[in-house]
Design a protein that fits this description.
This protein is an alpha/beta fold. It folds into two domains: 4-119 and 234-261, Rossmann fold; 125-231, Dihydrodipicolinate Reductase, domain 2 (2-Layer Sandwich). The protein is 34% helix and 24% strand. It contains eight helices and twelve strands. It has a seven-stranded parallel β-sheet with strand order 3-2-1-4-5-6-12, with helices on both faces. Strands 8-9-7-10-11 form a five-stranded mixed β-sheet, covered by helices on one side. α3 packs parallel to α4 (102-111). The radius of gyration is 20 Å and the shape is elongated. The two termini are 33 Å apart.
């Protein structure tokens, strides 16, 4: 029997790709596609809205009575209701929403005592390989190498810097002993903006329809090493989220990430 899947944020750019790919892969039974209560497309077939064939599941403001797993790519203000629903109904949760508050992060950790949760700032498999390696590279190169992170996204992205850029910085800090987040420098401006040793620079670009690009620059006198990941389409993140959902439905309660899904935890 296929796991029952509910998608929150179903009419958004990511939600539509999740619907289309889940229907194409046929690994899940889509039982709910959810949006906010004033959305103009409520009641329409979610498959048609996603650009695929009809799936006989209407876009709704109501969550289904039961499900096995939820994938949430909505907005931070919707995260609390998703966590509450999943906890109450014993539904596993794949949370890709970024920009959560400190209180919401604490609530997520509490919920993980009762249900299985995968939380990730980026569901791309390639990006998660970067999360696992950027800190090791920084540690191997040593303190003489300055580290800068440049992230680029489309003009509609609200939060900056990206959650992925912060995750990259945090991974580097864990391996090098830098104090996160106090070591971060967010852009530079002014006549006295010299780089301070022991800091990581983070720079956010918002332009056009860039899906997502992250560059990690390690530079010293005489050489520069740059590692970069570019997402060509949202399908990269959607496929990763669906892989996480399939993995999660068999797991015990706990707070996991994509490194767990990929088997990269040491």
């Amino acid at each position: 029997m296929k796991p029952a899947l509910v998608i929150n944020g179903a009419a958004g750019r990511m939600g539509k790709r999740l619907i289309a790919l889940a229907h194409e892969q046929k690994e899940f039974d889509i039982v709910g596609t959810v949006e906010y209560d004033c959305h103009p497309d409520l009641g329409k077939d979610a498959g048609i809205l996603a650009g695929t064939e009809a799936i006989n599941v209407p876009l709704s403001a109501s969550l289904p009575d039961s499900a096995d797993v939820m994938i949430d790519f909505s907005l931070p203000q919707a995260a609390d209701s998703s966590i509450d629903y999943c906890t109450k109904n014993s539904v596993a949760l794949v949370l890709g929403t970024t920009g959560l508050s400190t209180a919401q992060t604490a609530k997520l950790k509490e919920a993980a005592q009762k249900i299985a949760i995968v939380q990730a700032t980026n569901m791309s498999l390639g990006m998660n390989l970067l999360f696992a390696t950027v800190g090791k590279i920084a540690k191997a190169l040593g303190q003489d190498y300055d580290i800068e992170i440049v992230e680029q996204h489309h003009r509609f992205k609200k939060d900056a810097p990206s959650g992925s850029a912060l995750s990259l910085a945090e991974s580097i800090c864990k391996e090098t002993g830098l104090d996160y987040p106090s070591c971060l420098t967010h852009g530079r401006q002014g006549k006295d903006a010299l780089r301070r040793q022991g800091t990581i620079g983070i720079h956010a670009v918002r332009a056009g329809d860039i899906v997502g690009r992250h560059s990690i620059i390690y530079s010293t006198q005489g050489e520069t090493v740059t590692i970069e990941h570019s997402a060509h389409s949202r399908d990269t993140f959607a496929r990763g989220a669906l892989r996480a959902a399939a993995w999660l439905v068999t797991r015990k309660p706990g707070l996991y990430d994509m490194l767990d899904v990929l088997g990269l935890k040491e």
